[in-house]
Design goal:
Strands 1, 2, 3, 4, 5, 6, 8 and 12 form an eight-stranded mixed β-sheet that branches. This protein has a four-stranded antiparallel β-sheet with strand order 9-10-7-11, sandwiched between helices. By secondary structure, the protein is α+β, with helices and mostly antiparallel strands. Helices cover 36% and strands 28% of the residues. It is built from eleven helices and twelve strands.
């Protein structure tokens, strides 16, 4: 008896960052696009809470209660007066520490899986509230598609997309800490007048039209200079992708994964091949967006019988 939930990676097509707040966070205008690289989170009843993980870079994933999937199970259990006695297994395919919200995806996946396994009947609003408590990117992993996140990024407004966008992602040889990138952003911005972060209207229009050229002209990431400061070699990866014909090249979120927008599937293959040959990155993946958010793909047989299709 188990539940499996599939959760997508994300790319930030715009990440506008405001000045540091008194609580240490930054106000953001964060335009998320879910893309078709997925983790699968399976939750099974157990004697106690434990986490296992398989897949690329699984050794880097914490298996204790700091893991967002474990924290999600605990948060839902506490809210409903349960014991979080489950085995959470993460089949990982989203890059680890890559700026693509893999950990956040696992948190959202575990939350949806535990809700289905336990039959808690939590409303979407309740689940999103728990997601926001877990981390800034977790609510979007639940929702998927495309959305504008404001506040810390956790206050979401769904966005219209008018087509499929083709992406290539280059994984770096090492990770980057998100808090370290924000600290570097603060250091680089010291003394500067940082404007309030707002979503780019041309970017929102490009998403709605499904126009890759217009989107390429509008993508931006205020954390990119900080990521490049901490990891200068990423500039070589970005240059290799541009030289191969990518319409746009940017660091994904806090990095170090770099994202390349291609016009069509054939162009994406060309960019991927060139990046692989460039020797500037560890692995290369292609994916399309938007992709669905956290989705139950297998559930307990007794629940299937109770809710026939």
């Amino acid at each position: 008896m188990s539940v499996t939930v599939r959760v997508p990676a994300k790319v930030n097509v715009q990440l506008a960052v405001g000045a540091a707040r008194p609580d240490g966070f930054h106000d953001l205008a964060n335009v998320f696009l879910a893309v078709g690289l997925y983790d699968e989170v399976t939750v099974t009843p157990a004697d106690e809470l434990r986490v296992t993980c398989t897949g690329p870079d699984a050794a880097q994933v914490p298996l204790d209660r700091t893991n967002l999937a474990a924290r999600a199970a605990v948060a839902l259990a506490e809210r409903y007066g349960r014991t979080p006695a489950v085995h959470i297994h993460i089949a990982k395919d989203i890059p680890v520490a890559g700026g693509m919200a893999g950990g956040s995806a696992d948190g959202a996946g575990a939350l949806v899986a535990c809700d289905a396994l336990w039959g808690t009947g939590a409303s979407r609003t309740e689940l999103l509230d728990i997601c926001a408590e877990l981390g800034s990117d977790v609510p979007f992993s639940l929702v998927g598609g495309a959305a504008l996140g404001v506040g810390r990024g956790e206050q979401l407004t769904a966005l219209e997309t008018g087509g499929t966008f083709h992406w290539v992602f280059a994984m770096a040889g090492r990770g980057l800490s998100t808090p370290a990138v924000f600290r570097e952003f603060d250091r680089l911005a010291e003394g500067a007048d940082i404007p309030e972060p707002v979503a780019s209207q041309p970017l929102l229009d490009a998403l709605a039209k499904g126009d890759p050229d217009a989107l390429a002209a509008a993508v931006s990431n205020d954390l990119q200079p900080a990521a490049l400061s901490l990891f200068p070699e990423l500039a070589d990866t970005l240059a290799a992708g541009r030289a191969a014909g990518a319409l746009a090249a940017l660091v994904s979120g806090s990095g170090p994964t770099t994202a390349f927008l291609a016009r069509d599937p054939g162009s994406a293959v060309k960019v991927a091949e060139a990046l692989t040959a460039s020797g500037t990155c560890r692995t290369v993946r292609t994916a399309t967006g938007p992709a669905a958010g956290a989705t139950v793909i297998a559930r307990p047989s007794h629940q299937v019988h109770e809710n026939p299709a």
